[in-house]
Amino acid sequence: MNVNYLLVTACMLAGHLISAQNFKGQVLYEENNNPVQEAHIFINNKVITHSDDNGYFELSIPVKGVNLTISHLGYMSIEEFITPQDDTAVFVLEEAPINIPGVMVTGNSKTDPVFTIETNDYVKKIVQPRNVADLFNDVNGFSLIKRGNYAIDPSFRASQYEQLNVQFDGGTKAMHACPNRMDPITTHVIPEEIEKIEIIKGPYTVRYGATFGGIVNLVTQVPDASEYGLHGSVHAGYESNGGSLVSMARLQQASEKYDITGNVGFRDFGDYEDGDGTEIPSSFRSLDYGVKVGLNFTSNQRLQAHWRQSFGRDVLHAGLPMDTDLDDSSILSLDYKLTGLSGSLKNVDAKLYYSYVDHIMSNSNRPSFMMTDAISAINATTAGGKIELKLKPGEKFTLFTGLDAMLIARDGERTRLVKRNMAGPLPTPMEFIDKVWQDSYINDIGVFAEGKYTLSENTILTTGLRYDLVTSEIKDPEADFATLYPDLDKRNEHNLSGTVSLKYIPSNRFMMEIAYGRGVRSANMIERVINHFTVGQDAYEYIGNPNLDAEINNQFEIGFSGKLPFSDNSTDRFNYSSSFYYSFYENYIVAVIDESLTRKFMPTNLPVNPKVFRNLDKAYKTGFEVSAGMDFLNHFNFTTELAYVYAKNKDLYESLPLVPPLTTSLKLGFEKERFWVNAIYRITGEQNNISTSFGETSTPGYEVMDLRLGVVPFKNLTLGVAALNVFDETYYNHLNFSFNNQADFGRVPINDPGRNLSAFVQYKF
């Protein structure tokens, strides 16, 4: 272990600054020969720098030459082989039809929101994601909340569920129907459909809905001008641990005026084994398809429609009291974009979406079925939209303003057929109907304004203000819930959030960011309306509270990032980034044992007293993410990353729940255009800072090694193999749920998979 941390220290201290350059270039627009600022400059598929305000850039390249790629949003990319030269080379970008991937992070460091990261390299992971949440596994600061193989939620800096603003394509949402989150938003889209993931690390923008702990935007693929004509791809994957199969096909036809894309995917995952050979009940099957149609009316005007459906069947949830028999979702979204207008109004963006989730779960495969046959049929609808205007009142000032809406409604019931009690079988089974969501809704309508002001050539100030009107109502309450809360009229909440940040970029080798954000989140539907259901990690019944105040996150953050070239005749360099944050919470929502109330279902079971959701007065969170690495010998790279969170519930004198331990990863790779190999060694510390009121127990630390290799034997064909958990470690993450209502398992945390061999093949045409 000491050697590992010595490597980390050595890496972070390595690197030196040498400024000599041997290649100069300028990027211009074809239509007017004006300079292009902030164009991405790639060498051997790695971003090296960006063009400056006059379109110029400088590089250090080897004498033998390199492959250069230049790209910019809205223009066709340029690919060219270059060698050192004395003259300034000129590159001209041709305009490409606009797309609507819902991009909030454009790759322009001067105009992006502060503390943003962009990630996805699905093909080179060479692993078959259970759902989209698996794509976060290698992102520093993220952890996964697992209830099995299917119901996986991302957690970032100990923020999870509705504390994270997770969306598709800049605003589309699909909320889960199940109160146990058997069907989180990450299950309603094909992982292979995701082109990239954009992350804003805190409440540092007001443009994408009410945000408490951060924004996650899942961007789906859209054809660009380089893909005109008929194109497509097929791929398949296999994992040995569980005998799991994944397949997908994608077909698209694109032209300057229109594009049509269709995809279909099938996943069949079996029960996996942990490092001790114990089989974990976690199998599932899912079928997904989607169709996307885009019309480019003019070079600066586009309309796009996207329809997708997902069908989950026979899903086993090791950490939940029931299994999913059926989970069907349908999502429709419409996007419109108009750019390049003259005058103060520059852009118009509009979005509408609707989603419906139909969910059926039962306990037919569980021990409790001998006493009670339970089945729940529930549904959820999510509808919303957004309109945003981009205004340019002055040369140094840009204003984004608009309004958005999200309307959530849920209903459904649980049917229980009680067949026996503690005394024995009943002469006649007794049927009971329980209202799961009590026919409830939450509507959020928001108005926002966010401005960016250029204080100097290197400094940008961003300020934003947002108002949300949140309306909620329980239209069909259970009798006991109405007795507990006699005043259940429609409720209105008025939430005010805002942000201010400063970004300083003196050169393309260094950036400093400072930010404050006030994120406000009204209670979600579980916290408001759940009535004596077991929805936590423990065995307690939970009761909602429709009178909860909105919780507030006051988050402060400072960060530094940059790169230092090693020499003037190679692309080798030292890279680093860091961010340090502190949050103090107001009205933080937690569930607390209420000794004045007693259990409703199975009243002889323990624990007798239920938990009721309450607001805390005092809680805080602090932590950091740090990374450092080197690109060396042209094709090698080494990176180390650390992430740590500490959270405190000062009212109950314990940690907040679901706080991950210190995590460290060491990554060593070799990467060329047609061949890559990498090793990832993860060190996860023990977690003794726990929430006992949440049912948490201390978690031991563990170390896991993954190896991956990929090759492109000829154009358009990619092959890959991987060995995950190479040393067959038996371990579980602190955020894993415990076994629940499972034969042959006590209430202990679910172990993660043991050694797993994976193979992957993809062909594009």
From TrEMBL:
Pfam families: CarbopepD_reg_2, Plug, TonB_dep_Rec_b-barrel. The keyword Repressor does not apply. Keywords: Cell outer membrane, Membrane, Receptor, TonB box, Transmembrane, Transmembrane beta strand, Transport. Residues 280-726 form the TonB-dependent receptor-like beta-barrel domain. It is a multi-pass membrane protein. SUPFAM superfamilies: Carboxypeptidase regulatory domain-like, Porins. It comes from the Bacteria. This is TonB-dependent receptor. It comes from Maribacter arenosus.
